[in-house]
Amino acid sequence: MVFGLFKKEKEEKAPENLRGAFAPLGVLNTKGEDVKLGSVLSQEKPVLLWVMRRFACPLCRGYAVQLRDNVQKKAEEKGVQMVALGLEMAGLESFQEGKFWPGGLYIENDKQEVHQLLNLKRASVWKLFDVGMMYKGHQLQKEVGGNATEGDGFVLGGVFIMDKDGRCMYEFRQKNFKKDAPIDEILQVLDKF
């Protein structure tokens, strides 16, 4: 019998001062130019950072629409900056054309510094197969378009919210492709601002 099989994984925690931790990390703007993440995050207001998986992914596009349609208004009312960070450029142009995301868009650099800092995981082949089964007969791809196979399909993301002082107020890390941060939880956090 293998005893390590059922061992509970250590819960990951974001740095308490997210803005400070993010400040020196390099990312790319939508033109492919190097910028520091700290220079694009507001220094004066709370920030919702969605570390998304892929711009071409129908699941990611569907979640972007949920955030846009259900969170954007509250974020604007509360003065919260919305920023999304994709893993790679693949699918970016059509993502922008589809107007799926209302906030700033940035892309990880080759070093994937944000993913490393947040210790975001990669999913197994079995999880990828499970998502492939989800697409069968599903309307999502018809609604938001995208290419389920374009780009790195194994990366996982999450949602991180920091207050105006940079403190981490909320973090949600994907454990699989099907589960994103619940919209009601995000709205509850935004209500505190």
Please tag this protein with its features.
PXL2A/B/C, single chain, seven-stranded mixed β-sheet, alpha/beta, about 15% strand, Glutaredoxin, Thioredoxin-like_sf, about 190 residues
Helix content: 25-40%
Question: What's the count of strands?
Answer: 7
Please tell me the overall pLDDT.
83
Strand arrangement across the biggest beta sheet: 2-1-5-4-3-6-7
User: How far is the first residue's CA from the last residue's CA?
Assistant: 50 Å
CATH class: Alpha Beta
What name does the CATH topology carry?
Glutaredoxin
**Biggest sheet, in brief?**
7 strands, mixed
CATH architecture: 3-Layer(aba) Sandwich
Query: Can you count the helices?
Result: 9
Derived from helix and strand composition plus strand pairing, the structural class reads alpha/beta
- Measured on Cα atoms, how large is the radius of gyration? 16 Å
Strand fraction band?
15-25%
Count of discrete structural domains? 1
* Broad shape: globular
In CATH terms, the superfamily is Glutaredoxin
Pfam family, one: AhpC-TSA_2
Description of the molecule:
- By secondary structure, this protein is of the alpha/beta class.
- The protein has a single domain (14-191), classed as 3-Layer(aba) Sandwich (Glutaredoxin), CATH 3.40.30.10.
- Helix content is 34%, strand content 17%.
- The protein has a seven-stranded mixed sheet with strand order 2-1-5-4-3-6-7.
- It starts with 17 loop residues before the first helix and ends with a helix.
- InterPro entries: PXL2A/B/C, Thioredoxin-like_sf.
Short description:
The chain has 9 helices and 7 strands; from the N terminus they run αββαβααβαβαααββα. It has 193 residues and is of the alpha/beta class. Strands 2-1-5-4-3-6-7 form a 7-stranded mixed sheet.
